[in-house]
Design goal:
CATH topology: Ribbon-helix-helix fold
Strand order of the largest sheet: 1-2
Strand content: 15-25%
CATH superfamily: protein bp1543
Number of domains: 1
CATH class: Mainly Alpha
Structural class: alpha+beta
Largest sheet: 2 strands, antiparallel
Radius of gyration: 12 Å
Length: 84
């Protein structure tokens, strides 16, 4: 397994952009998108459009993934609107 961040291209609002995430975050991000019935591009767009900070998209995705699994571990029901 490659340890460093892996750069992948995604499409947001018709524009290609690169996002660098570590393999476990890419895997978790794809899994969450599948569970929500979304493509990874659609989930990235939701996260990006609701981002409340000046953080980069990659950091925001990491926090989203962390919060998703933290909520599951705590038995909390995560709504379908990303909170980032």
């Amino acid at each position: 397994m490659k340890r460093g961040p892996q750069k992948r291209s995604i499409t947001l609002k018709g524009h290609r952009t690169s996002v660098s995430l570590e393999s476990p975050f890419w895997e978790a991000f794809r899994e969450i998108a599948r569970q929500m019935g979304l493509t990874t591009n659609a989930l990235a767009l939701k996260i990006d459009s609701e981002r409340m900070t000046d953080s980069g998209l990659a950091s925001t995705i990491r926090v989203y993934v962390l919060n998703h699994y933290r909520d599951l571990a705590l038995g909390l029901k995560r709504d379908e609107t990303p909170k980032v």
